[in-house]
Each structure stands twice: as C-alpha cells, then as structure tokens.
Structure prediction request, 641 residues.
Amino acid sequence: MRLHATPRDKNVYEAGVIVNSLLGEVRSKLGEIYQNVPKTTYEKLMLAYVAFSNRDLVVALKQAVKTIPNKVQGVTITSSISGNAMSLQEIAHGVVDGWQPAIRMCQRNIDNNQAITSDNTAIDILDFIKLESALSNLYASYEHLWQCILWSGYKLEELDRDLKYFRITQPLTSFEIQFEASIVRKERLSSQKTMIAYSPELRKLYIDDKFVRIKRQSKIRVAYEAPIKSAGDKLITWNTQWRIQVIDIMSYFPKKWLEEDHGSGFSILEALEVMRCLMLMANSCFEKFPEDDSAFNLNKLMEFCPRVSSQSLRFALKNATRIEHSKIAKILAFLTATSNQTSDLWCEPLIKVKNEYAILLGALAAPSINRLVEHWFTTFQINLEKKGYTYEESVVNLLNKELYQNPLIEDFDEAIGKRIKLDTEEEFDLLARIEDLIIIGESKSIVTTDSPISKYRTTKILEHAGEQVIRKTKFFKDNIERVFDKLGWNFDSNAEYKFAQCIVNSSQVLVGHKSNGIPVIDEKILKYYFESSKIRILSVPTKDGEHKDLAWYELYRNIKELKDNFETYLCNPPQLNEDEKSFEYRDLVLPYLSENSYKVVKRRLSVKQEEPLAIMRREHKFRVIKSADYESEAPKITVTI
Prediction:
C-alpha cells in the first residue's frame, strides 16, 4: 500500500498520526481531572460552563470595541483561551463549539441521574472549570484541524522532528483565495443588512413588535413582555434585521415547509418568532453584566450566567408573540439542548436546569437563520434537495424583474426554467435571451457552508453543476433552432448567437470561482448586473442618512457593452473586494500538554488590515469613475465595511 500511496495519502496519514496522538492526550487528561472532580453537581457544573462561555464572549467584545480597524472584516483580538490573535468569528465559534462536548456530557449524566463523587483530592471548582475550558477548546481545535487536513487539503510540514514541531498550512491556491473572499463578502453583506435595518421606513414597519426581557423578582429572575419601541436603538435595529432575514428565507424554501406543522405541534415560522424574542432577550442581557469582568471565585463567575424561570418565559413569549401557550411550551422544548450527538447548541441554544433556562449568549445573541432552518428541516426529516425548485423560481423571477426595467434592453425573451425534450431531453434551470446573447444557468440551493466537510461537499456540488452547464449548453447549440421553437423564441438565422454560462449558488460561497470552467455567482450578483450599470467602490454617509458615491465601476454604457461585458462580470464579480493580495498567513499556535507532545502550528489565511483606499490600487476589470470631490473626500475615510 505504501508504494502506491499518493503525496496526499502520505500527508493525511502522517497528519492523522499526529492529530490522533494529540486527541488521545486530551482525552486522557480529561479522564484524569474527572477523577478529581470538585464537590458539586452536574447541574451547577453545566451552569458554570455557560457562565465561562458568556464571560469569554463579553471580554472579547470589550476588546473589539477598543480596536479601531481600517476594515471591519479581519479584525483580530487576543483570545483569553489560547492567547492567539483570532477573529471575532473564530472566538464566537469557540465559546460555543468548544463547550458543546462538556455541556453534552453534563446533560447526559443528569439524564441518567448520575451524581459526582468527590474525595479529599478534589480540584478547586474554578481551577477545574478553567482546565475543562482549556481541554474542551483544545479538543475542538484538534478536531477542526483534522477536518481541514482531510477535506480542505491542508499540508503538513515538518519543522523539527526531534522536538516534534510541525506546521499545518492552508494551501495558497486560487480556490482557497476565492473561498476566503466569498466568506468575507458574506460577512460584508451581513453588515450591510444591519445598516439597511437602520432605515427609519423599515424600522417603522416593526416598531409595534414585542419581545422579552428578564428582571429580578424576589430571589428569582423572571421574563416579561416588553415593547420594542422603547428597547433602544440597538435592539430596534436587530429586530428589524431579523424580520428582513425571515422575509429573505421565503425565497429560498417552499412556503408550506415554513408554515406547516411537521408533526411537532408548531411551524418553522412560529419557532423563528420565538427565536426572535430569545435573540433580543439575550442581547438585552449584555447591559446587565458587571463592569468588572474578573472571575476570581465561582460566585463572581456566575454573574455571567443569566437565568430565567421557565414558567415565566413561557407566558412572556405567549404575550410577546401571540402564539398559544401549548405551542410555546413545545417550541421551547425543541430549542433546548439535549445529550444527543445530533444536538447542536447553535440551533438548540437553551440550557435547562430544573425550572430555569440558562442563556448561552454565543449561540442566542446572533443566531444564523439559515443554519437554524436547515437544521430544523433535517430534524423533521424534510429532504432539503427539494428546496431547489423554490430557489430556481426565485432566480428566474429576480432576473426577469431586472430585464424588464433595464432601459437598454428592448429585444429579449424573459428568463425561464424548462424541461426540453427532443431526441433526448434536458432540464434547464435558467434560460434567457438578450438579442444574440443566450444565458444558460444552473441553480444550486446549497445548505449553509460552516465546516470543512460542508465546504468539500459544496465543491463537489458545484463541480457537478459545471458538468451540467457544459452538457446542457452543447444540447442547446446542437439543436438551437428546435430549442428556440420549443421555447417559443424567434430564431434569427443571420444572428451569431453567443452563450454566457453560470452556476447560481444560494450559499454565496465560492462566488468568483470557476467550476469546470463555469463561473460561480449568486442571485444577487446576477440580478445586479441588469439592475444598474454602476457598482459602488467607495461611498460615504451624508448628513441626511443617505450615501454619496466617491468611486464606482461603470459596467456598461450601451446595449453592446452590456452584452460584451457580461461574461467578464460573471468571471470577475466586482462585489468581491478581496484578491490574493488582500490575504496574509497568520499562525495559530495550538497549546500542547507536555514536552513529549506533538507541537502544532496551524497556518491559515486571514484578511489583511489594509488602509481604506487600497482597493483603488487593485487591477480593475471595469472602468473606474471618480466623483468630482473624490480627491478631497476620499482621504477622510478611516474605516471600510
């Protein structure tokens, strides 16, 4: 077998030996400290884990506020767990993913009525929790590292074999750059949604919403209904943003999937309404944490574990959502973490201990609606592959809206998805004609990409989509007159028809990448080309709350340029602000348990903190137009989003 092993086989094998050894050491150390568990209960231990997670997040956010970046994306701060410079996103994932195994283990012991046995050698409870924190996060880091090696092709490099020093590096390839650039764009789009949610017109639509707050009543904390209009600017904005996102997902999933009861006693939309209130409740907790974030004893640490009476939460949610009490009870049970291996704290973020819920802020304060919905559909055993038809229809409708409104486009056939049967048959997701330009697209509704394995699966889906586009384009070209006839289009025998091909990817990951030579975009990129002939590069806010453009791309000036430049646009989406020069390697030194352990450095690509006008010095595929006051206004920009 060794003789036939490829370089990748050898890389995976050697890295596997190292990661397996490191995981084994952590498991052994965990077993060791659990031989000396402090005198407490699994319930109290689980609450302490929630408190520790919350405190780490609070400390990280405080550090982030002190940081004045040139660019919102790529901001790093020092993690209190590892001491490494990490992005806020990495820390936010760590305070949830790193604690999931420990919380799950506590819950399993609670379910089985297991008690903690302790003796005179027991570790101090705060020391125990700190050790558990470090080990849980370390285990999660090693597991993720293995996923990166196995599914993303990270390379193992020997630094010093005698001292067992190794580096595991993310490949510097166009694929990885495009992947990272698309992730940055997703973060930017999320930031833009927050800015959109500041619109007075939008906020007014939802200003009569209610949500839930927590207050102390005697010796317990209870939930109560509160109006959003008096909640303050931040919560009003987050409420508006949530409402916008819920409307967005209606174009990605069949309506009946969201509205129907799948045997659980409630609908997905009702669960999302409850999550809206819980999200706002979690964010309102931040203002109540002590200014002094030190945790020198257990009581001080527990100030970071907000809890609420389960009974009061049910009634408060009933009043805030107008959903009947019996449904609220079922939804809360559905959103409560369990000891099952399939339980996901990001989607079941409530921790229940006796008659109270503990609030895990990392998961509850900024939940991903797409991740929630996709996880819930899987729980209800709904085949997510069938959601593709809804997405295909949304793509067609978005494109048609822009084709009809674009003043340059007069001779066209509207976009359509259609199965065409001749001697053989093909099903086209997207077909449209603009004069002699024919657009052929394959729409792929892909689940959230949030791990190396899902990234790998997305890559394989896109590769297959590229093959489909190539095959369907050949079918169209080989039978062009007959296909025109089937579509009801007028065929011009004197025209030299040109074809523009694309893969439209709902997850927005890997846009800008070419899969089997076919450019990957998303529906926003597709529609925007026809919506406007210009794309902002730099803009600044004005006093009246609007934005003034300082520099922009001019995509086209006439119908000929519109057609000629479309393929360039598909292959080089201007919405991607980052290229290879926008990234740099950053080392993450993983802790180790002894001098005999393997010592591993994870080297991954990270966004540079470039000065705001760096984008203007990039190679541009389209004409760059500057405003008359560019020279005086542009130097004043200090931060870009």
User: Anything to note?
Assistant: The two ends are 51 Å apart (CA to CA).
